[in-house]
Each structure stands twice: as C-alpha cells, then as structure tokens.
Amino acid sequence: MFRTLTVLVENNPGVLTRVASLFSRRGYNIDSLAVGQTENPTISRMTIVVEEDDKVIEQVTKQLDKLVDVIKVNDITDEEYVGRELILIKTDGDPSVRGEIMQIVEIFRARIVDIGQSSLIIEATGDEGKIRAIIEALKPFHIRELVRTGKIAIQRGSRSAAGKSKATE
Amino acid sequence: MKQKGAQILTKCLEEENVDTIFGYPGGAVLDIYDALYDSPLKHYLVRHEQGAAHAADGYARATGKPGVCIATSGPGATNLVTGLANAYMDSVPLVAFTGQVATDMLGRDSFQEADIYGITLPITKHNYLVKSVSELPRVIRESFYLATTGRPGPVLIDLPKDVCQKRVALSHPQSPQLRGYCPVQEGASRMIGEAAAAIAASKKPVICAGGGAIISGGSEALRELAELCAIPVATTLMGKGAFPENHPLALGMIGMHGTRYANYAVNECDLLIAVGARFSDRVTVKVEAFAPEARIIHLDIDPAEIGKNVPVDIPLIGDVRLVLEQLCRQIQGGNEKEEWPARIRAWKEKYPLKYDRKSETIKPQFVVEQIDEATGGKAIITTEVGQNQMWAAQFFTFTRPRTFITSGGLGTMGFGLPAAIGAQIGRPGETVFNIAGDGSIQMNIQELATAVDYRLPLKIAVLNNSYLGMVRQWQDIFYEGRLAYTEIGGPDYIKLAEAYGAVGMRVTKPAEVRRALDEAMQIKDRPVLIDFIVDRKENVLPMIPPGGTIKKMLKE
Question: Residue-wise over A66-101: b if at least 16 C-beta within 10 A, else e?
C-alpha cells in the first residue's frame, strides 16, 4: 500500500543523500520524493511516497527519525491532507487532434502550455487519481514525454508537520 | 588571537577531555600533525589506518570514553572504513578525523582525494565535511556529543587542508543545538508498570542482556533486577561481562554457539526480557522460532530496534541503566521464582560446555581456560573473529563489564590485535590478552610494531590450527568437507615476534600451556606472542545451524 510521509529536515548539503541512501541500503521502495525549502529557510520539507506494508513503514519512519538531520517524520496517509502533484505531458498535436485534446484538458481543468508544429505540452495538477486519469485519457494521442514532480502534501486544518515539537520554533 | 584550524582542532580535543589519539600522518593532515607536535595530546602512531580505527575502538570499549583516530585523505581515509563500520555495528563511540584535499581542489579527482563523506554515510552515526574553519569548534563539539550520547556510534569529520591552515579567532562553542537529535533517557512510567506486572505474572522469565547493558553502565542494575526476582540471565556475545558468569543465575551466552542451557531456557521461557540487545541473527538463528512461548519485553535506547527483528509485547525505550533502575523500584519483593531456576540448574549440570580434556594435542578450549586461570579471571580479553572468538566467549568466565572486546556485529578479522593495543593504552594496569586465530592475526600483524614501540605488555595467544577454522568447520558440516582454500600456512611466529622486537613462544603440548602463560605474565615491557599448536579439526560446539532451531543443534 502507498503511504505518504512528510519529513522535515535540516536544509544542509547531503541531507537528500542521507535520506535516499537510507532507502536504498535498507531496501525500501520510494515511489516518489519531492523536496524544497519551507517557510523557515533553515528547514526543507520532503514528501515521500513509499509502497510498503505497515511493519516496513514503521521501520522506515524510525530509521528516518534516527538521522541527525531529520527533524520530524509524519505518516499522514490516514489523516486529512491535501496532496498534489504537477505533471507535464508532451503529446502529438497535429491540428486534427488538437480539438479533442483541448476538450480533455478542459475536463481535467488542466492547461496547454506550449504548442509546437506537431506537438502539445499539457500541464496538470491534482491528486493521484486525477493524474492517473489524465495520463490514461491522453494515451491515445501518443505521449512523447512525461515528467512529474512527485506528490507534495500538507495536512488540513491547524495541524502542522512540526506538530507541537519545540524544535522548529 | 588568531589560530590555525589545526590548532583549534587540538584545543577543542582538549576541551572534550581527549588525551589519547591513534593515527597515521600524511599530506593532507600535515597541519594537524604540526599542531599535535606542540600539543599535550598523546598520539600513538600505528602502522595502518585500520589499526588506528580499531585501536581507538578498543580504547573506547575498555574505558567507556570516546576513541579518537586520525588519517590522511584518500587511501588513509578509506583504510578507516572497516574500522568505522565495525564501531557502527557495535555502537562504539568514536570520532574520526580525516584529511581532505583543499576545498578548491574538491571534486577534481585531485591526488589522494576520496569522497570519504559519501563513503561513510551509511557506516557512521553522523558525519561532516567542514567547509569553513569557523564551523570547526561547533562541529567537534557536536561530534563528541553525538558519538557518546543516545546509542553511541562513530562520527567522522572530513577536514580539507585549507580549513586546517586558515587562521581564525577561537570561539568557544556552546552546548550542541541539534533539533533533530534528542535521545530519550528515562523510560515511560506506564510501560515500566506493564513490564513490572509482566515480570510478576511470569513463571519462567529469562533476561537476555546485550551490549547496551555494558555501554550504559547498567551492570549493577541488571544484577539487582535479576536477584530481586531470581531471573536467570543469558547474554549475547556483546553482553558478555554485563552479568558475572560465575553467578548462580548466569546462563552464559545464547545463540548459534551459545550454551545448551541458555538456549533451552530461552526456548521454554514465558517472558523474555531483552536488555540492550538487538536480536541479531546470530542470537535468534531462526527468528520465527525464537522464544516461541514468550512475551517479549524489549529495553533499548534506540526506538528503531523495537520491532525491527522480532515483534515486541512491551517496549521500553530509554537508557538501559536508568530504565532498569526505574524497573527495580517498581518491583515488589516476594517475586522470586523457584521451580524455574531449579529447572535451569538441572540443565546446567546436565549439559555443560565440554571438550575432550584428555586430548594429547592441545585443545583450543583448554588454552582459553588456562588463560582464565593464569590471570585469575582478571584479564581484558580481545578476540579476532572466527573459532578463536567463540572459544574465548565460551570458555573464559567473564565477571566484569568492559573486559570482553570483540567484533560482534561486523565480524572483523584483524580487529583483536589493534583493539588490544587500544585497551592496553586505555587501561594500563590490566592484563590484556588477544585471543587470536592464525588466520585473523595475520590481517593486522603489522600492529605488533606499534605494541613494541610503546612497550605494551599485551599478550597474544594464537590458536594455531593452520586453517581458517570457522570457514573450515562450515565446509566440513555444510559443504561435504570440500575444503576450498581454507588451509593456510603461516610464518614462524617465534621468529616473527622476535623480528618485531616482541617475545615469541611456541607450545605444542597441553602440559606446557600453563607454564608458557605464566612466563608470558612475567614479561612487562613488551608484547608476547604465544603460538599454540592446537588440534587442527576441533569444531566450535554446540552449534545451531543457520536457519535452524534448537532441535537441529549440533552437540559436543
């Protein structure tokens, strides 16, 4: 099953390597990993999607927590959160098919961000379901290239990844 | 006043109460060595950087203080790798300094450049590449804090040459501010209550003490808990010395080469109290069949150990000593078990460790027993890895913590001699014995020169069977006796020892063993190597084959 972890880390060089090498060394599977600075410039935030069972996830979480540069790990899968991913898809785009593609883009509230002589680039954001669906819908138009950011996620309401931890104040 | 980075380094080490360093100089650490020239720090020059790491490791295990080692960039640094991995697996506090090419040369495949920061990421508790001299005091303070607190471990600091040369005013760092690192100390009182209740309710409890019981200084508290409720105590290899093995409640070692009674006890117990142990595969052997009847209390300072290898019923996270003390306060008297200790006493009488005492060739077990006798049981024993290690563990009666120094997790051949050097330097009043095999001793034999240089009176007992004995044993048992490349020759050890300036002896008959040991004990100004020609085909028994249960145990 897919689990979504949010990980607050020190914004230090090497921290991404530490996290990634922990996954590879212990044989855990990363589905996606997105990282960037937070509201506090000394802290980066990773959203990691992992496909493992509960027992493995517990180990992943604990092993991540052990890294000195990791400030806080949360498994937010079972909580209320907003999860989004950005995807860019380049498809065939002959004038003959553009109309159809534009309809699909409309339905998914995506955008066409570039038109070449025979290709289109479509930008979409959404949760896993929507991203999966738009990829499926565009397959008949020959997906030439596809790039995605990996999921980022944030808890709803007043809960925060830092929790009550004084560490990040 | 402005000082060079290298001088700041030595000042900071003094502030951390370091007085002993093991190292080997080289181009990238010339400035550090130049600073050491004026420093009160005592530097011990080894013959190979791996020896420096293991010596610092042995020093740390024998004294409880962090070990410090230094190596130059490139090959010097990569030679530390085995030593760091070894310390990491056994949770030994170590701070390693490596030289590095200057910051403007980094990443250009410069002469003697190696990415030791990247290489040691998975084998250190934490590591640093210092890019600016102003960070240095903070990094050193943090490194010692990280190495010695929580679950201890090695920390590496990579120091580019220009960082060591640059001059800056020494700033005294404050206490470390690490928001991602807050090791727990005391246990949660609710869990301690549950553990106390489980102990009171159990009829057949067993304690299994690991290295954490020693590291935390928890031996006294462990003994108090065991005696309060008459709970038998087994130890892991790393836990040897945590509980006196001459105590009526002692079960000796459990696991693959553990005593029959310790393994029987764990197999039958209804409550297993793991104290600073991590359920390694050499302890559980077949993890699904381990302690099948038992509820498990697991006390460890590292939350990631809980549930890693075996499911745990009552987790106790915290410093082993503190939690044991908390637990003792919770336990009411009148909990003594009676039938269970009696059953265990019967096993102990019926199934002791044994070997052929009438043998005309020297049995390696006999040598270990004789070392125990000759030293009055008051030695620090280091070992190499393999049969020598298991016989040392089985046949020396350990009664004090920090007296059995062995490579438990990584299983590093070549560990014992440099570790003995570190232990002897850290505890000069003790008799230090390295129990070695003829395979392992040759892996870091060059350190004999170090021991001679510093006139260390350590003793090396080579249990010489002209085989890589443990591998030979597995080939005989599991590979139909196809002894592929396990028969080895060796040097004339008497000449070898003498060439280095040590004393060499050879013993070929059981009757001569004790006399040689007594003679060795009289030599106080240099190392002694005794070449014991032992029974070539002796096996380490009992043995639970890998993946097997006690039903499959191979017995003496």
Answer: bbbbbbbbbbbbeeebebbbbbebbbbbeeebbeeb
Q: Assign domain A83-152 one CATH number from 3.30.460.80, 3.30.300.30, 3.30.70.1150, 3.30.160.100.
A: 3.30.70.1150
Least confident of A12-26, A108-122, B455-469, B528-542: A12-26
Nearest CA in chain A to B177: A167
B321 part of a folded domain? yes
How large is the average pLDDT for residues A147-169? Answer: 77
Q: How many domains does chain B have?
A: 3
Yes or no, beta carbons of B304 and A66 under 8 Å apart: yes
Say what the pTM is: 0.95
Whether B109 shows a pLDDT value over 50: the answer reads yes
Residues 6+ apart with CB under 8 A from A42: A10, A11
B117: which chain A residues are within 8 Å (Cβ-Cβ)? Answer: 14
Q: Is B178 on the interface with A (CB under 8 A)?
A: yes
Q: Are residues B344 and B442 in the same domain?
A: no
Q: Are B180 and A168 in contact (CB < 8 Å)?
A: no
* ipTM for this prediction: 0.90
State how far residue A82 is from chain B, nearest Cα, in angstroms.
Answer: 25
User: Which residues of chain A form CATH 3.30.70.1150?
Assistant: 83-152
> How far apart, in whole angstroms, are the C-alpha atoms of residue B374 and residue B368?
10
For residues B231 and B336, membership in a common domain is answered with yes
CATH of the domain at B497: 3.40.50.970
**Quick one: which of B241, B220, B221 has its CA closest to B403?**
B241
Mutate which: A9, A42, A62, A72, vs B, most B CBs within 10 A: A62
Does pLDDT of B292 surpass 90? yes
A2-79 has CATH 3.30.70.260 classification: yes
Q: How close, in Å, is residue B309 to chain A by CA atoms?
A: 10
The alpha carbon torsion through A11, A13, A15, A17 (nearest 10 deg) reads: 150
Residues A70 and A8 sit within 8 Å (Cβ to Cβ): yes
Range of the domain at B36: 2-169
Residue intervals of chain A classified under CATH 3.30.70.260 are 2-79
* B430 and B505 inside one domain: yes
| Both structure tokens of A148 | 């995605």
Q: Does A26 lie at the interface with B, CB-CB under 8 angstroms?
A: no
Tell me how close the Cα of B458 comes to any Cα of chain A, in angstroms. Answer: 38
Above 70 in pLDDT, residue A165? no
Residues of B with catalytic function: 49, 111-112, 161, 470
Angle at A101 between CA A95 and CA A102, to 5 degrees: 95
Residue A130 is given by DSSP the state H
pLDDT tens digits for range A74-126? 999 999 999 999 999 999 999 999 999 999 999 999 999 999 999 999 999 99
Q: Do residues B164 and B275 both lie within one domain?
A: no
